[in-house]
Amino acid sequence: METEQPNQYNPIRFSWNSIPTSKSSLDTTGIPFGCVYTPLKELRSQEQILNYQPCLCPNCKGIINPFSTIDPQSKTWICPLCKQRAPLPLNYTKIDQNNVPAELSPENTTVEYLIEENENPVPPVYFFVVDVCCTEKQHQQLKNLLLQTLACIPNNALVGFISFGTIISVHEVYFEETPHISIFNGTKVYTAEELKKFLKINPISTGIPNRFIAPLKDAEQMLNTIIDQLNPDPYPIPKGNRVKRCTGAAIHMAVGIIEATFPKTGGHVIVFSGGPITHGPGAMAELERIKNVRQLSDISKSKLTEESLKFFTELGNRANSSNISVNYIAASFEETGFHEVEPLVTATGGFHTIGEGWADADLIETVVRYFQREAPYSGSEAIVTINGSSHLNVTGMIGCGIANPPVNNFFSINNKVGLSGTDQWRIVGLRRGTSLGIFLDSKGGVNGEKCFIQLLCRYRYFVTGKTHLRVTTAAVSFDDNLSSQLTGFNQEAGISLLGRLAMFKIRSETVRKVIDEVDSSIVEFCKKYAPGANFNQNTIGIPQLIFYLRRLKVFTGQNTTPDLTASIRCTFNILDPNDSALLLVPILRRYCLGKEVEEMPLSQDSLDPQWILVLTCFSRVVVCCGRDVASWRNQNIHEQPGHEDLKLILEKSQADAKNFADLRFPAPQFIVCDQDSSLSRYLLTAVNPPPLQLEAKKSANSLDTDSGDYGSFVDRLRQLSK
After folding, report:
1. Is residue 339 within a helix (H) or strand (E), and if so which, with residue range?
2. Does 327 share its domain with 286?
3. C-alpha span between 573 and 544 (Å, rounded)
4. How many whole angstroms separate alpha carbon 694 and alpha carbon 512?
5. Span 469-487, pLDDT tens digits
6. What local confidence, expressed as pLDDT, does residue 4 receive?
7. How, if at all, do strands 158-164 and 125-131 pair?
8. pTM of the full predicted structure?
């Protein structure tokens, strides 16, 4: 059976849909074999949601799917994963051409089973952890953001509130008489059992109102009062010192309170951080300002960073096991410590956004979009399991979550990548766009033979509390014909996997070595499939994707910080292939008098004084008016009769740019500028990226060039791949 879904609805995209019959040949393709899997990708139709239990193979526990062979006469079916025959359940015995269950329909390679109705589901839980170490102006901006955030939360959601600075303040949000604030030392951490005792917390199942986590409809007035009366940290700051900020202890406490209150269902911690962690567990900066916050050049020698990473990694594993995701929102000109906090966010499937101030429009919009667009469609307590044909196994996953013990013996013992040695992963916070990079290996097969994988995602729908099981089944063909292999190649998925692999290796290997491995991979790919760098439709984007991948700040270390590189890595590792490509290669569109909108090459030649250019990046959208267009606009020529075409391109460029920005999460920075203005630097950087400068000795297959421009890069690739 042949099935193919449009990318809009297809939750799984393989780098290679046709692979060589031998493992040795697969190892020389240059691009990793695997898939990018988006568990909660939008379904094509409501008929894919099934309100009954799935039919399981008694041998391998695979679930019946469109690739299954049905034998109505013997009332049996053959599982495509293990090739074993099994009896059909009674509800399948009346199958014929006019009566095909949805899960067997060729177009339904993904279906979702509603497998558990929770009669008393716990509503969404949000626990705010708020940094009060800031100036009066910043503090007021933060309070405004918190009030906006509360307005986006559904009334049935349960909400808690902690503020922190030198100390931790746990606020009562539900009370009968006078509300209290419980104060804790910012240098200590407490277990869930200790917090139960100190705060007299009752698990929510007892029916006794909880003073620290309550429904928003009951606590909204109190929360508004708490925010209104929230003051900056009152403790004096000695001259030459940084403020004491106990971010690590505060997050640890929020996790403990949720564990004590909801020991099974968990919740979301929302952290608002305004500066470096200087106090208590997880500290990554010294109090004395004379001691600089760690930078990329010295971070490997930072004892504080080493200890902080260990603290947040352990907290991430604990939070994951308790179904608690941690989301991190930072606003500061200084490093806030996301480099150290990133293992916690990644392990729990949280989101993050980093800005310079609490009034930044893109930061505010990201928070609003999270609660209005993302949270209502998200899942929690997700368990992702992979199974498949005996020809294949999984070498690991790079994305988010933690590894669970294996369940299907579908994992590789020798080859390991990312979260490996298993075929199951646990992800607490799963958004619609969260994508996992799953790396596969082949044991070899017969030419023309198909092999299959099946991905199961069991999750609790965050809003309703119902448990769903999403099942996706896909096929890969064995084919030694190079043309067939190339036809089944997906360049966006391939580069997404290659990029994840490079970012995974950069943690333990030198940049020079990682870049040389990337270069060797692409040269190997081109020698086999595009000699002399002669690319076809399936590979035309490869040179540009690699050119920009090599120039990511994760690898160049130029004009970046540990927090920013951690943010890029954390973001890239959960993007689907299309967004991965956009993060690497921006899209440049030209708006010109008398002509249709046209996509332009990322080159200095695309700059013209009579054009409007719209640059769409993953984290930024730039509208730049050419010098002449800006002059005409400033003279209001576009408002004069006969110049409607000028008015049209001015309005259309802005409208299109806003539409691009509106679709994204996190919300991108939106910039409107003129040619030669200071803000036009964002456009110039994209069309003329800085060259990769590495001092260490390069390999023979290195794609480094003296000029560093794209044309020289392609020439070098063409030379090496002959």
Report:
1. helix 338-348
2. yes
3. 20
4. 7
5. 999 999 999 999 999 999 9
6. 47
7. parallel
8. 0.93
Query: Cα–Cα distance between 720 and 170 in angstroms, integer?
Result: 62
| Same domain membership, residue 233 and residue 183 | yes
Q: Name the residue range of residue 582's domain.
A: 490-586+691-721
Three-state helix/strand/coil letters over 437-493:
EEEEEECCCCCCCEEEEEEEEEEEECCCCCEEEEEEEEEEEECCCHHHHHHCECHHH
Q: Could you give the CA distance from residue 350 to residue 328 in angstroms, rounded to a whole number?
A: 7
Give tens-digit pLDDT for 312-337.
999 999 999 999 999 999 999 999 99
Measured CA to CA, the distance from residue 132 to residue 165 in angstroms comes to 6
State both tokens at 400: 């988010």
Instruction: For 154-190, give the secondary structure using H, E and C.
Output: CCCCEEEEEEECCEEEEECCCCCCCCCEEEEECCCCC
Q: Domains in the chain: how many in total?
A: 4
Query: Residue 41 has what DSSP assignment?
Result: P
Q: Which segments of 522-600 are extended strands (E)?
A: 587-592, 598-600
Cβ burial, residue 282 (10 Å; 0-12/13-18/19+): buried
- Residues whose CB is less than 8 angstroms from the CB of residue 156 and which lie 6 or more positions away in sequence, other chains included: 123, 124, 215, 216, 217
Question: In the structure encoding, which two tokens stand for residue 423, read together?
Answer: 């075929």
Q: Which residues contact 408 (CB under 8 A, 6 or more apart)?
A: 60, 61, 385, 386, 387, 423, 424
Are residues 419 and 384 in contact, defined by beta-carbon separation less than 8 angstroms? no
In a domain, 72, yes or no: no
Q: Burial, 188: exposed, middle or buried (Cβ in 10 Å; 0-12, 13-18, 19+)?
A: middle
Contact 526, 57 (CB under 8 A): no
Is residue 159 within 8 A of residue 217, CB to CB? The reply is no
Q: 506 and 437, same structural domain? A: no
Q: Phi/psi at 437 (nearest 5 deg)?
A: -90, 110
